[in-house]
Design brief:
Number of helices: 10
Oligomer: single chain
Largest sheet: none
Shape: elongated
Radius of gyration: 20 Å
Number of strands: 0
Length: 200
């Protein structure tokens, strides 16, 4: 790795840590250069503004979240088992330290910058990447019946977020492994109760 690339990574790592600890607004470029052990000029050579640095961090953090294995619908396998696998993977991601960190770094900043919020709202991570297609295939095979697939997909994901992600983000409670298993089980059960295709 070239020295320039290594310094850029040092800056990103330092800024990510400081933004998570103190927020974006209260973190200065001086503090970032000190934590990264590079000159302030080096910081500005890589990132002209703090907003640009913040965007680079958000992009990097989203990329880390985008490597989940895609689940393709298989009619030979129980749809309950497949949805349970998807839900378990999503719960693991939503409750991971890296995802919580991403949310804490970006949440307030994105609220104050609608244009950034719009940009990052288009970023698909985890099962968002493939769930619509999975549901469409299940419907085509007559296993599920869904009139509005994007709505149903969002419904499935937000059920998980409500009970696993938001309590952790807001630090209102610690979500136990037993609670996560309950959320996965009940989410899949409710989803199938609503969207299973009628028996012929």
């Amino acid at each position: 790795m070239k020295l320039s690339d290594r310094k850029r990574l040092q800056i990103l790592d330092a800024a990510e840590a400081l933004f998570a600890e103190h927020g974006v607004e209260t973190t200065s470029m001086d503090a970032i250069s000190a934590r990264a052990e590079v000159s302030k000029r080096t910081v500005y050579n890589h990132f002209a503004t703090k907003d640009e640095l913040f965007q680079a961090i958000m992009i990097r953090m989203f990329e880390r979240q985008a490597d989940d294995e895609v689940v393709v619908f298989n009619k030979q396998q129980s749809v309950t088992d497949q949805l349970t696998t998807i839900a378990a993977s999503e719960v693991a991601r939503l409750s991971s330290d890296s995802f919580i960190k991403l949310a804490k770094v970006g949440f307030i900043q994105l609220l104050t910058q609608p244009e950034l919020a719009e940009r990052f709202s288009q970023q698909k991570v985890g099962c968002q990447v493939y769930l619509d297609q999975f549901l469409e295939d299940a419907c085509e095979q007559g296993v599920l019946h869904i009139d509005d697939i994007p709505f149903a997909s969002t419904q499935f994901i937000y059920q998980l977020k409500t009970f696993v992600f938001y309590p952790s983000l807001l630090q209102s409670e610690t979500v136990s492994e037993a609670r996560k298993e309950q959320v996965i089980r009940e989410t899949v059960s409710m989803f199938l109760a609503r969207y299973s295709a009628p028996l012929r």
